[in-house]
Each structure stands twice: as structure tokens, then as C-alpha cells.
């Protein structure tokens, strides 16, 4: 992290890797806080502005979020959230509007098989949270597609998920600074997902060979025609 | 599973929950195999057709795949793949064109931190596979965004990923029938992802309270304003 110095717009653009018109757009939209005015048409910016721009850039280009979602996150950050709040914002944003909209009603859709696993693991979870709603939906979809073999192992998946969630939390704790922390939570969630799934696929590759290789005479025989 | 009986188009539509025009479109496109012709403009279909339509429906509506990808999967299934082949097809399809296109070249981008973890776990992985490429990309993105705290825990994430991959493989083994198995592998992968991530979010909720609750006087104090 660079030391706290004031900079002009051109320097801010260079260091944030964003164009001047883009930064001016974020200023007009209120996503970036105004700089300290030094004359009628000059202002200076500091590391707080740079950090905000890096958060916005990450949310738009890496997480692929629309500006309305970026605004939600930025507003949440401006309200000086705790880490719990920041994680809640990250979860809401990542799960999308669908999950949120449906949890605003008084009827919360629940799942017995999910609730049993939550109880087994002793998780304290909000039944009104988008995360719970997303889990119920995932269970429903698997059920509808007849993939009960996956639901039969829900407890095992939950055990692995618990480990992942614990590592996620550990990494959040090591990061200093609120805006950096929120950026870490949101971006970490967005970028950790494809990492975990890619690792799962690699593990599958390994186990697929172990489990199924003995069914065939060799790798060349794996395609029957 | 219903007993093997022949049926007319109307019955096929009813049981597959697809419209007759949609089924005729799949026939014209060669995604659905032709029925047994009983007269000039009549044909009968059987459970193999129904199973194929359920696979197509799952790939389009649940997995949200474009028809070109559906064709890839259907062609792979028609070639009577082994389970390893089916998983490879599922991985390719789920990882998208980007990962595939870039692995066709001779230059395979590698990652030292990833290779170290793969070696630690003793995974046998294809460096030319889309899964490996996706993992390298995920590592690169985390690195570029300065989220090294996540990369520092790569070994721990890999351990959890290994458990998930093992459960995935177990569920595949319990399913009978090739087309059903492929459908299970592809759909299972598509639908297991949101399930696992939702479970991770629930676990995060739980740990966030455990880890951070002591910093504040109570839940009501978690927002400072």
C-alpha cells in the first residue's frame, strides 16, 4: 500500500487503471466521493479515493456486477459496516435479486432435509437470509430432477462446506482496513468460487481414474468407438 | 422408471413435459434420434427417446446451455462414453469455450503454487485439461487482485475440494444406465455447485457470528449508525 498522498485526477486514473471519463462518471453518479477542491476546476484525491475506485473496478470488471449492485455495496461500505455486515452485503449481492426478493415476504420456504443437516452441524442460520433461500432452491432443483443421490449426501457436502466457510472467515480476519476488507470479502467470494470448483474438478479427475480405471483394459480403451 | 413401452408423439410430449413443436425441432436438428416409423406420417417412440429428451431439457433449462453445447453432450452420449468420458464432457461443457480454446495450443500456462498443492495431494491431473486451465486462471485472478490471503490457504481449499470431488464420484457410481448417468454427471455438477456455495454461505453466517460477535456488545450494535 502506498503512503497517504494527495494526487490529481490524472494520477488517480493512472494508479486506479481507470480512464478519466470513467472516474468522472463515478463522481457524477456519487459512487466515488468528491475530492478536495483546490480551485474552481481542480481537485485533489487521496488513497481513500483510490481504494474506492479499486473496489468499484473489482465489482464491475471482476465480479461483473451491474452499477445498481455496485451502488448497494458502496453505500454499505460508506455506512462503516462491521465484518458481519460486509459479509451479509457480499452474500446478498452474490446471490442476486431473485433470492432477496423472495425472502421479503412473510412466507419463508423451508426444507426438512436441509434443516436436519443444519441442526446436525449446529449452524446458527437466519431462515430469512438469501443464503438459506438459495440452499432451499438448490435442494428443490435437485429433488425435481430426481438427483436424490446428491441429497442423500447433503450432510457430507455440508461438512466440506463448513471447512470452506471456516477458511474463508480466516482469510477475512487477516485483512486490515474496512474498505479493503469489504473488497476482500466480496471479491474473495467471487474469485474463490471458481477456484474451489476448479479444484473440485481436478480432484474428480483424480478419483475418476482411481474409481473407474479398473473397469477398462487401459486409458486407450476408455472410448468404446 | 416406467416399463419400456412404445408411444406416440403426443404421449412423448406429455411425459417429457416438452411441446410437440419443440420435440419436432430436436428431431430435425438431429438431437433426438428418429422414432420407429409405423406409416408415412406416423412414428412411435420409446423410453430411450424419453430419456434423451429429459437430458436435453435438463441441459437447456436447468444448466442453461446453448444448443451447440447440448449437441456436444448428446453426441458424446451417442458415442457410448465411459463414466470418465462423461465426466470429461461435463467438465468441458461446464467450463465453457474459453477454457477449452486456450488449452488447444501447445503452450500450457501453469502455476507453481497450484502445482505444489496438486503434488501435495498426490492428484493425477491433466495439465492440458480445461479444469487445470480454469484453476490456473482462478489463481491468477486472485493474485492480480492482491488476494494472496486466499492463495496462502490453497492447500486447505484443495483438501475440502478433494472431499467434495470424492462425494461427487460416489454419487455418480450409484446411478444406473448410461444416458441417466451422463445426465446425472452433467446436471449433478450444474446443480451441486449452487448447493455447495449456498451451504458455504450458511457456514459463513455461523462462523461470522462466532468469530466477530465478541467485538461488539450485541447484534443490535453491529451497525455503527
TrEMBL record, chains A, B:
The keyword DNA-binding applies. Residues 6-76 form the HTH merR-type domain. PROSITE patterns: HTH_MERR_2. Keywords: DNA-binding. It comes from the Bacteria. One of its GO terms (molecular function) is DNA binding. Gene3D superfamilies: 1.10.1660.10. InterPro entries: DNA-bd_dom_put_sf (IPR009061), MerR-type_HTH_dom (IPR000551), MerR_fam (IPR047057). This is MerR HTH family regulatory protein. It comes from Brevibacterium sandarakinum.
Amino acid at each position: 500500500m502506498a503512503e497517504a498522498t494527495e494526487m490529481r485526477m490524472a494520477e488517480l486514473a493512472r494508479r486506479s487503471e481507470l480512464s478519466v471519463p470513467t472516474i468522472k462518471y463515478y463522481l457524477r453518479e456519487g459512487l466515488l466521493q468528491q475530492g478536495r477542491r483546490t480551485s474552481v476546476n481542480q481537485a485533489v484525491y487521496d488513497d481513500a479515493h483510490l481504494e474506492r475506485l479499486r473496489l468499484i473496478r473489482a465489482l464491475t470488471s471482476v465480479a461483473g456486477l451491474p452499477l445498481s449492485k455496485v451502488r448497494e455495496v458502496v453505500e454499505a461500505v460508506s455506512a462503516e459496516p462491521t465484518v458481519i455486515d460486509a459479509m451479509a452485503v457480499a452474500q446478498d449481492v452474490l446471490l442476486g435479486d431473485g433470492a432477496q426478493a423472495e425472502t421479503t415476504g412473510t412466507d419463508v420456504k423451508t426444507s426438512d432435509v436441509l434443516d436436519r443437516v443444519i441442526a446436525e452441524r449446529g449452524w446458527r442460520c437466519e431462515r430469512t437470509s438469501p443464503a438459506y433461500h438459495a440452499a432451499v432452491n438448490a435442494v428443490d432443483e435437485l429433488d425435481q430432477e430426481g438427483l436424490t443421490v446428491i441429497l442423500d449426501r447433503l450432510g457430507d457436502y455440508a461438512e466440506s462446506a463448513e471447512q470452506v466457510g471456516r477458511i474463508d472467515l480466516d482469510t477475512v480476519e487477516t485483512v486490515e482496513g474496512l474498505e479493503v476488507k469489504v473488497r476482500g470479502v466480496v471479491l474473495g467470494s467471487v474469485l474463490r468460487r471458481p477456484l474451489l470448483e476448479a479444484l473440485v474438478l481436478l480432484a474428480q479427475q483424480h478419483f475418476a481414474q482411481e474409481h473407474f480405471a479398473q473397469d477398462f483394459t487401459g486409458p486407450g480403451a476408455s472410448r468404446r468407438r
